[in-house]
Structures are given as structure tokens and as C-alpha cells.
Amino acid sequence: MDIHPWVWAVTITILLAVIAVDFVIIARRPHEPSMREAATWIGVYVSLAVVFGVGLGFFSTPAQSLDFFTGWIVEYSMSVDNLFVFILILGSFAVPPKHRQRVLLVGIALALLFRGLFIALGAAVVNAFAGVFFIFGAFLLFTAWKLIADSGGDDEEYKENAAVRMVRRLLPTTDKYHEAKLTVRLDGKRVVTPMLMVMVAVGLTDILFALDSIPAIFGITQEPYLVFTANAFALMGLRQLYFLIGGLLTKLVHLNKGLAVILGFIGLKLILHALHETTDWHVPEIGTLTSLFVIIATLAITTVTSLVSSRRTAAVKAAEAAGVAAGPSDGAEDTAPRARPDDDNEPRTRVHG
To answer: Is residue 330 part of a domain?
Structure first.
């Protein structure tokens, strides 16, 4: 796929314009978006991604369009998993609800910047050394195993990364928010506010997520333009997705297992591709259409089983709570002493049975 420089320039300019418009809107009216507002914006971004993918089919080839949609779905599904961590970070830093959009937008802008650099580096390595797919594949298989192994762990607490701890050690900080200011002068000294700290935490966390997602999408397509645009469209709707399904994420209890299956599958595909490129063996390769089917089927099964499991867990807890509230069952003998009348002169009747 031969992408002219002007196409790259137009694409990056449009992305920067969207981020700039978003930032201006948020700066003028900081607020926590309603479910309706978040759903509307997600619909806009999803529609833009669909239009872009269909346009690739017309102006390039149907195969490129299929590669984009497959990569976009992979990146979007992994972005949903990232929201778990974002919820923990924003909660840990106690970010005021009206400023959470600003934090997420800055984090997404940083993620786009660094992912662009990672994609350029990854494309250069792939073009120079086909054996790198062995490394990508092994890394994805290891990540899949880690997701399965850690699925029963307790991830309810956010632990600050080294960069955030370093900022706290090197710079004077305050624990109090001063609207959206990143620094503020207190007692004649310039100090860093929690707003800057949480932006650093979100941005760096998303960079770490790129270590999984970039090799995964290179397993779908090695075209840098498709890799970048799939990442961009997946990230652009992430902020609104946070507000739309933040409360539902706790019900997706099997999401990690589903992502582990997807990453393991793509890891296997990368290893097969590496064997095909670097050896004379007749190794079968997994096509993009097959990959798309496996990914969609895995996400659908994961969602259904998660919702069923969450509903059963809620029903069990409700039944247990009702049992505790009801006390002993009707057939059980009540051995508790009965209250006596206040007036000792009143006749007392013992009731049997």
C-alpha cells in the first residue's frame, strides 16, 4: 500500500484538529457528560471509522479495508480493557468529575503521539528483519498467559508508577486541586497540583498498553498507515466510552480471558507468519477474514458469559441478603426468650407449637 506524504499530512492534521476542537469545548465548559452525550459522540466516532474503512475499500482495495476493520476492532477491544485502569487512576487521584474529560483527552493525545513513534519504529524493524515476528508472537503469547494467570487476582488498587513517584520526589506537590491548573503558587512557592500528576499517570499507563496493542495489530497488517489509523480511531472514542460504560465494566468479568484468547491467537498467527517468511517450510498462514471472525466471536462469547455470570452473582448475593434479613426459617424452632408483659399482674399464656 503506497501512501503519499500528503495523505499522511492530511490524516494527522485532521486528528490534531479534532483534538484541538475537543480541548476547546472542554476548556470552555468543563463538565461530566451525560449518558446521551457520551453515546452521541461514540456514535460519531464509530461512524467516522466505518466511513473511513469503507472508503479504503473504494480508493484502495477490499483487503486493506478488511485489515483496517480487523485492526480497529482489536484495538477498540483492548482499549475497553484499559478503561479498568483509567477508572482506578482517576478514582485514586480523586479527580473532580467535571475535569475528568480534560485528563482523559490529554492522556489520549499523549498516547497518539507515542504510539505514532512506536508504529514508525515497529515498521522499520519489521521491514528490516522478518524474524521480529517471532519476538512479537512470543510476547503476545506471554501476555495472554499473564492475563489468564492474573484473572483471579485483586486489581482493585492502583499503584503509582515510577515516573509519578519521581515527580513527587523531585518537585513540590500539593494534594489539593485548583480547578484545572497544573501548577499553582502557594506561600511564594510554585507547586505541582494533582491534575498534572494524574495526566502523567494516564499518559504513561497508555504508553505501557501500547506495548501489547502495537505487536497485536502488526499481526493483522504490516502497513503503518493502517496500524496508525486503527489506533487513532480506537483511541478517539475512548474518552466518551469511559463515561458511557464505566459502570458496566465491572460486569465484564470475563473480558481479560477473552483478550487473552485474542492475543494468544494473534501471537500464534505471528509465529506462523514468521516461519513462513524465514524458512522454506510449507506453513499455513491465518487469513485476515478468519482473524476477524475469531476476534468478533471471542468478544461476543466473552460479553454474554460475563453478563450471565454477573447476573448469577448478583442473584446469589440478593438471596443471601434476603436470607439474613428474614432471620430463621419458618420451620425452625424459635428458642429466643419471649418478651414478658410490662404489667406483672397480667395473666401470662405460654403458646406451644
So the answer is: no
For residue 348, name the pLDDT band (cuts at 50, 70, 90): very low
Specify the residue for cell string 503476545.
140
The model's pTM is: 0.75
State which amino acid sits at residue 154. D
Does residue 261 fall inside a structural domain? yes
Q: Does residue 347 lie within any of the structural domains?
A: no
**Chain segment 79-134, per-residue pLDDT in tens:** 776 777 777 788 778 888 888 888 888 878 888 888 888 888 888 888 888 788 88
Domain count, the chain: 1
Domain that includes residue 286, residue range? 5-307
What element of type H or E holds 183? Answer: strand 183-186
Is 329 within a domain? no
Separation in Å, CA 207 to CA 108, 123, 131, 213, 353 = 10, 17, 24, 10, 70
The confidence score (pLDDT) of residue 161 equals: 62
Task: Mean pLDDT check: name the lowest of 293-297, 306-310, 337-341, 346-350.
Answer: 346-350
190 forms bridges with which residues in the sheet? 185
Q: How far is CA 349 from CA 32, 206, 335, 342, 346, in A?
A: 64, 73, 17, 14, 10
- Is 49:230 a contact under the CB 8 Å cutoff? no
Question: For residues 221 and 74, is the Cβ–Cβ distance under 8 A?
Answer: no
312, 320 contact by CB (below 8 A): no
